[in-house]
Amino acid sequence: xxxxxxxxxxxxxxxxxxxxxxxxxxxxxxxxxxxxxxxxxxxxxxxxxxxxxxxxxxxxxxxxxxxxxxxxxxxxxxxxxxxxxxxxxxxxxxxxxxx
Length: 99
Description:
Residues 1-23 are annotated as: Disordered. This protein is mainly α.
């Protein structure tokens, strides 16, 4: 009889399936268009002063400023994020449901 220890939630046991993607994001590797849209969004955010490494979070003022820029809105729309004035207002009012 053999036994194995239970895997911890913090352990990634996916092997080499999609090593570049965190758990839950493997499907991105199957969509070149989605990857290109995310790469473009990252580039646009970086060009507009966002620390894309995650070390420093953008301030609310910086996020609001980003939402006013056409190239940022276009790049976020391509990855499925709605930054229209109406959606931003609902987010500011605490409505985080997807519509």
